[in-house]
Each structure stands twice: as C-alpha cells, then as structure tokens.
TrEMBL record:
This is Uncharacterized protein. Keywords: Signal. The keyword Signal applies. InterPro entries: DUF2015. It comes from Mycena indigotica. PANTHER family: UPF0357 PROTEIN YCL012C. Belongs to the UPF0357 family. It comes from the Eukaryota.
Amino acid sequence: MLFLLSVAACFFLVIMLSFRYRDTLLPHVPSGIRKLLPATFNNYQPLSTFEQQIGAGMTSSDFDIEANLHGGDSRMGLDEAGTREVMEIMRRERVNFDQARLIRHNRILAQNGIDPSGMPIDAKAVTRL
C-alpha cells in the first residue's frame, strides 16, 4: 500500500513539474506528438523574421524594426530567446513593447549587480577616483 502511494506521488510530481516547465520542454517534443496536444500547449510560435516580429507587435517608435526592413538589414530577425522573454512579459504583465523591453533590461542589470540607474549595487565598488 505504501509503495503504491509513493509511486502515485512520484507520478503526480512528474506531471506537475512537466506542466510547470512546459514552455521549456515543448521545443524538445517531436512535431508529430506536438500536434496531438491541446492548443493551449502550442501557444508559442517562433518568430524568426523581422516581418513576423513586426506582425506580433515587437516594434515601436523607439525601437523601429520597420526601418531595418527598409534599410536592407541582412540579419534574419531579433534574438529568439529575447523575443520570447519580451512577449512573455508583455502577456503576463499586460504592458506594451517598450515597457516589456525595459523590464527585461532591468532584470538583466539586476542579475549582473547593477541598479536601474547604471550604478553598481556592490557597496565595495569604486565609482569615483
């Protein structure tokens, strides 16, 4: 009885963890199986070109991707991981593109020990000579 209870607990733990980290796990699932999953699991589509990123709202007057298209930029598009992170911030926090970019940038600064003003957070850092 105790064995069956522990097996069931492990099974439910695996299900809960796979649901929690489904955005990380889905790119590794074969496309044939992915088609069988409900539409809620397939909500992310990679945006690999500037045209697709513009259509998804990843442009603004301050960050004009359309100028890249008209200027003949040879790159394929924006960074895929950064695009995904900005779109997730836009969806979760209900902010526009520029605000989501600022939130992401401030998080990156905080991870590197820098406050939003650009000054180091470390009290031992030398900022003047």
